[in-house]
Amino acid sequence: MSRQQRKRQIRLQIGSERSSLPPTEHARKSQLICAKAIQSCVRPMLERRNGLTVFTYIPFRGELDTMPLVRYCWEHGIAVYAPRTDRDNLSFVLYRIESENDLEAGAWGIREPRTTLPCLPEEEWPGIDIVVVPGIAFDRGCGRVGYGGGYYDRFASTLRRLQGNAERNDTSTPLLLALAFDLQVIGEVPMEEHDFYIDRLITETGMYDRNFHRRESPK
After folding, report:
1. What is the residue range of 19's domain?
2. How high is the mean pLDDT in each 10-residue block of the chain (219 residues)?
3. Are 155 and 110 in contact (CB under 8 A)?
4. Is the residue at 167 inside a domain?
5. With contact defined as beta carbons under 8 Å apart, do 93 and 158 qualify?
6. What is the CATH number of the domain that holds 68?
7. 0.90 exceeded by the pTM?
8. For the chain, which end, N or C, has fewer CB atoms within 10 Å of the first or last residue's CB respectively?
């Protein structure tokens, strides 16, 4: 089986399992995972810096609900940006959102920011502190299986290119963070050349760093 075939199999299997989560369990685990992200990532950064910028996807269908994290950011003066899909260029435009009223139905029915909102120029992407990355499946080495559209692969590629220039100006590097349910963690992700690794994965029972793997035990 090729890597692409294995990815398609993973998308079908894990996507089905994730969609099967009862709504109450989905909401409870989403809340728990967002709370862990706030405690382990957001608050420590807030203690070290004056202001933060977070870029996050807006949940769709069975995806983990990131809105508890987004609301925390709003309540604590953290700038939140969300993507709007530019289908002509197969890329994202990042718009700042300050309430759920700033969102509207966009491509494929996914909620996206309104185009009248302030956007973050591409050259300023390396100044983002945390990028919350969606995905279907992950492994303990922080490999990722996305949805097959390649949007986040291209975003990560652009970010790496911009970081190459930003590093010479001593600009910080965004933390690539994934929030997922335990059922989305598999033995090994079939990574291809264009794929990228995240920096940290947080689930309801564990936390995995790319360089250090598991950091805490199931409870």
Report:
1. 3-214
2. 93 97 98 98 93 96 96 97 91 96 88 96 95 97 95 93 66 87 96 94 96 50
3. no
4. yes
5. no
6. 3.40.50.10420
7. yes
8. C
